[in-house]
Structure formats: C-alpha cells, structure tokens
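Friendly challenge for the regulars: who can give me the structure tokens for this chain first? No prize, just bragging rights.
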Amino acid sequence: MSVQAVAFPNMAGQMLAGRLELPAYGAPRAWALYAHCFTCGKDVRAAVDICRALCTRGIAVLRFDFTGLGQSAGEFADTTLSSNISDLVQAAKFLEQNYQAPKILVGHSLGGTAVLEAAHRIPSCIAVATVAAPANPEHVANLLGAARQVIEQHGEADVLLAGRKLHFKKAFLDDLKNQHWQENIRTLRKPLLIFHSPTDALVNISNAGLIFAAALHPKSFVSLSGADHLLSRREDSEYVGLLLAAWASKYLGELGLPPAVSPAAEGEVVASIQRDRYHTELYAGAHALVADEPRDMGGTDSGPSPYGYLCAALGACTAITLRMYADRKQWPLDGVRVRLTHDKIHASDCAECETRQGKIDRFTRSIELQGALSAEQRQRLLEIADKCPVHRTLESEVHIETSLQG
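First reply, four minutes later:
Bragging rights claimed.
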C-alpha cells in the first residue's frame, strides 16, 4: 500500500492533518473514513493497523487528527464532541471533492460515538463500525476524575491523561450532556458493526450492549476476547480490520472482496516497503505475501524474515520434488515434512566446504517421510532431496543483475 499526507480545513478554516492509506496497485473499491480514539491521534497503532488491513482488501482510508491534536491546527481546549463530528463531515467533503465520497465510517472509542452521529450528515455513508465506543458520550466525562468538578465550578482545568496534560473547558462537558445518543443510534438506519472487548477496563462492554439494543437491524456484534481498550496488540487491531473488510463487502454490493490487483506478472516478484519498518508487501505473480523482521531486530514481526522465506523456498522445493519423484515411481509416500533452520558459521568449521576463511551460510534440513517405504526407497528419496532445483541454485554460482528505475 502507499501512504500520502494530506491536509484540509475544518469549519473554522484551520488545517487538519491526515493520511491517505491507498492500495499499492489498482483503484480503490471504496473509501472509508477513520475516527481515532479520545485524545489519541491518526498515527496510534490501532488506527494504522486497522486502516492497513482495510487497504489490503482494496478499501482506501483517510485517517486524520481532530482539531488541536497531533499535527492538526487549532486548540484542543476549544474542541467538543460536536466539533469532532464537524471535522468528520469536513473530511468526508474533502474526500468527495478530491477522490471519492466515503462509504464506510469507522470510529474507535469516542471516535466511534462521533461516527454514529456523523453518519447522519454524510450522505455517501452506507455502513458504520464502532470499536470500544461508549454508548453515552457522558461516559468520557468520568475519565476526567476529580478535575471534572473543578471544570464544572471554575469553567476550565488542566487534566493529565495518558501522560499528557490537556486543557478542558466547561463547554466540552456541556456538549457531552446535550448529545441525544439513543435517538442518533435508533435513527441511524445503516448497517452497524460493533466491536468491543469483555476485558476493556476503560469502557465497559455494557456500552456495546446499549448501542446494540438501541440500533435497528442490520446490526452485528464481535467480541474482542482478551483485547484492551486501545487494541495495543497487533493481532487484535489487524483482526478488526480484516473482519471489517469482509463485513463491508456485503454492503459494497460485492459477494466477497476479490483478491487485490497484483503488480507482478507471472513468474515475477515485486517487493514494496514504505516508512513503517520493516513491513514489506510481496507479490509473487498473483499471490500476496508479507515479509518483516523480528521485533528484536527493530521490526514488527508481521511476516517471515527474508531468510525465513529462503528457508521456506528450500523446504517447499524439497517437499514438492520428493512428491513428484515418488508419484512418478508410484511409491507409497503418504506425506513429507521438512524442517529447516538457517545460520552463519565459520568456514573453518565446515569440513566439506571449499571456503576456509570468513563465515558461510548453513541450512540445516531434517526430512520426515511418511508411508510404508522400504529402506532402499527412503535412502533414494534422501538423495533426491539434494537434487531439488532450489537446493541446486543455493549451491551453484548465482549472478544477480540490478538496475535502477525512475
């Protein structure tokens, strides 16, 4: 996928900073608008993962910082839930004027509360999804603790939230009280998908029940077992994004989202990486894959490492070669399991190697043959394993030609 920085004005003319998540290849099937959690920002981990998961299924997404947060202009102290809703409407207008009006609205936490109202004001919206959203917006006021009373009495106060000091005014609390949340949900009349975790310590799962009860059909609920409020684990946030894409396909007029368009021709591999190290999108012909580095190497472990794929190539080639040979000989080979590891060793430690200095790559391969094979057949298959094409490539002289494009 590709990421583009954009900016657009809010109702007051202040510029809001956003990110467009676009499919790496091919035109988007549809556009979505993402509203981040309370006092968070567009670049919070959950927002990035959910938008990326949607994008891999062909749905482009705009995520942006609400007024006064992140890279957006304006003062946070002057914002309210109503102003967040207004920001969403402006974001939708920006998409409509420059790309395509959003069909899917997604909101996390208070962002979920905001999209439930914004959907009434965005005509292009056909479906709405909320993640860990409070049913009653006033729930957010409880997060202010003892400072809430200070704000009520003195009109404003500084509050420490998630390690940041933010300034709140009484207008923020008054606006929360004036939201008609039950009526907003009851009159939504759009497909609604509700995500919530039973272990959410910040917004109790009972809020999901209230939203579900207030909404009309079609409505759906997904329990995010073991997840926290911010979906800080990648497996939780990606799960939400992938389910969202599958659910949205029905309301986008598709029986199922077709595979993403591949930039790779038959027999070709294309690798693409952006700034989110070291997540790499791979296309091998029509097949989409992901590569990454382990967390201890600075990656996010979202896919095998390059050497992991190299081991996988050798393992797959070994298994396929043995299967082909046994089939041709009509031997009773029921299955093959190949285990491989890769490391680097000192050349002097390899008695069979011609290289005597420095380090060399070592692949350790263990083969399990299943079936009623004779000792002679098993030995012959072990010999055939060394003749698989990838094995031969790794042991032969390899020439790589590289050119620079663009």
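The first helix runs from residue 45 to 56. The CA atoms of residues 355 and 380 lie 29 Å apart. Your move, everyone else.
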